[in-house]
Write a structure and sequence with these properties.
The chain is mainly α and 318 residues long. It folds into two domains: 90 residues, DNA polymerase, domain 1, CATH 1.10.150.130; 176 residues, Intergrase catalytic core (hpI Integrase, Chain A, Orthogonal Bundle), CATH 1.10.443. The protein is 55% helix and 4% strand. Strand 2 and strand 3 form a beta hairpin.
């Protein structure tokens, strides 16, 4: 049995090395695939290798997850991990037939992301903080930079002090697939960063990190998520994620008239289709505004505007 487990482990490790290396997937993605594939083989102790997996096995695994109460999105993600793994095994000649080729996963409706309105964003960023409190000043700089740039939380946490060009107001970001891009930010973010720098220099003695914890080490993604969660509760009544700030930034830039391809470059999207999701958000917000404000929207919630009296059709035009 030890040999069987070792063979499974070796196949998973080789696949994960391929994901992180040749495919350039992020450490978080690789970690998620590792967890999903490990649970797959743990649930099937008699399976010694990917070569022994069948479509029936995989369907039974997903059915067990469903009975255990797993969310549809979780099951869909695990099914995607299995398909990627068996596809890789087929390409490597480990298997001759891909058992997951016809593996269906539950459809997951894609809801429009929750974002802040421009007024809510202003409330979040213009709130009063204690300028003598290290954590308050740091957290405000983090919020300003996330909203100004729309960068991912992983990109913010991995950013170094030297990645900032304060004179040009741009930050060098290394995104998914180790792709580098330069993202601009504005004066409010620069002012918040300058306030943070007065504290950072006193505690970040042994790290190049742009943002650090109270002990001086590079800040953790979980800390940033907690900062955003707590800060947005005060504004919206519900906690939002750093990714919601990314959606918010992109949507507000698009609403300001930015070209779609510019936004794609700013966000570091490989596909335009990903960026177009933000257009859907903007259109939905536009539609809601239209329904509220336009007298001919067909909605009962619009303002009670009166139409101008029409000129008498039979009267003189003068």
């Amino acid at each position: 049995m030890d040999q069987a487990v070792t063979e499974c482990d070796a196949q998973i490790e080789a696949f994960l090395e391929f994901l992180g290396g040749a495919r350039g997937r992020s450490p978080n993605t690789v970690r998620a695939y590792r967890n999903d594939l490990t649970t797959l083989f743990v649930s099937m102790p008699d399976i010694e290798s990917v070569a022994q997996l069948s479509l029936i096995d995989l369907r039974a695994w997903l059915a067990d997850l469903h009975r255990a109460g797993c969310a549809r999105a979780t099951i869909a993600r695990k099914a995607a991990a299995a398909r990627a793994f068996t596809s890789w095994a087929l390409q490597r000649g480990i298997i001759e037939v891909d058992p997951a080729l016809r593996l269906a996963s539950p459809s997951v409706p894609k809801a429009l992301p929750v974002i802040l309105s421009q007024d809510q964003a202003a409330t979040l960023l213009d709130r009063e903080i204690d300028p003598t409190n290290l954590v308050d000043v740091r957290d405000q700089a983090i919020l300003e930079l996330l909203y100004a740039t729309g960068i991912r939380v992983a990109e913010l946490c991995s950013a170094d002090f030297g990645d900032l060009d304060s004179e040009r107001k741009v930050i060098r970001v290394v995104g998914k697939g180790n792709k580098e891009r330069m993202v601009p930010y504005g004066n409010p973010a620069q002012r918040a960063l300058n306030r943070w720098f007065t504290f950072r220099g006193k505690i970040a003695c042994e790290t190049t990190a742009l943002f650090v914890g109270v002990r001086g080490g590079r800040i953790d993604q979980r800390v940033v998520r907690s900062i955003v969660n707590k800060s947005t509760i005060a504004v919206t009544g519900s906690s939002l994620s750093p990714h919601a700030l990314r959606h918010t930034a992109a949507t507000h830039v698009l609403e300001g008239g930015a070209d779609m391809r510019v936004v794609q470059e700013l966000l570091g999207h490989a596909s335009m289709a990903t960026t177009q999701r933000y257009t859907h958000v903007s259109v939905e917000r536009l539609r809601k505004t239209f329904e509220i404000a336009h007298p001919r929207s067909g909605s009962d919630s619009g303002p009670d505007w009166e139409e101008e009296p029409q000129a008498n059709a039979t009267g003189s035009s003068g």
